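Now for my pick.
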Amino acid sequence: MHILSIETSCDETAVAVTKNGRQVLSSEISSQVEMHRIYGGVVPELASRRHIQVITPLAEIALEKSGITRAGIDAVAVTYAPGLIGALLVGVNFAKSAALTLDVPLIPVHHIRGHIAANYIAYPELTPPFLALVVSGGHSLLVDVRGYTDMKIIGTTRDDAAGECFDKTARVLGLGYPGGPAIDALAKNGDEKKYALPVSKINDSPFDMSFSGLKTAVINLVHNSAQSGNPVDREGLAASICRAISDTLVPRAISACKSLGYSKICCSGGVAANSVIRRDLSTAAAENNLEIYLAPLSLCSDNAAMIGCQGYYEYLSGNRADSSLNAYATMPVDKLV
């Protein structure tokens, strides 16, 4: 089964063609990072306009590189939630038009389910159940993946996501946007014990987390240092930030996996590219006799291949949409349209 998939939830326009859920025939991404870099973050209106400009030619390229003709496409899958509403609407409306023109089913795909499915592409042997840690610019989630389309959130952030914390602390350090890769690179030469930064603990919900306190602590530390004339050890602070975020995520993921009685942990999303988190999670999984599946760096950021993969399993479960499909800025991963 060949699926044409569309992803426009934020600032990447992505189109892919996949086969039977796990084989990627083509995957094209048009990044907007350079455009948004001068603003220090994503500008929703600009993102939407750029999606409109590039989505049609990008789809043409994806089809050509896949070697599949229009007649060979069996379904169209699209991210419909969550994300920037204007950006999502571009992808949803393009997908509805494509499905109508090709006379094939339209499959709605939740963005977070797509990130989880990225692991199926990288690891053909992987099957549910497992515990998924999904960490990105807007999401920090622990998900009980009972089946390909049966999921339940068991832990989430109460405020900022880990990616938001990386971006905002990078900005105060003058590292620009996106912040995660810049902090990761700077941290490689730093002492992670240089600064004692807060690690959240939520007594009534052990799998939930918080990153706003960490973000505020870093901002205050940098501002206070500037006012007192004492320079910040930027490498040490970057390393300390990575340590605090990893210490918030990794123990919860291990504990959640063991509490569910599972033997497998998956990690995906843009923040899953962080070298400290990857190393710590791999080490902790080995120490607890758990299998670890880390999405490769090429599949951590937003892409349409993961949407096509999850779209295949949504199709098998009977999840379809019609021309009334809408986009949603927020939507729980365990809820369907």
User: Anything to note?
Assistant: Residues 35 and 46 are 9 Å apart (CA to CA). The longest strand covers residues 23-31. The first helix runs from residue 33 to 37. The domain at 2-115+300-316 is CATH 3.30.420.40 (Nucleotidyltransferase; domain 5).
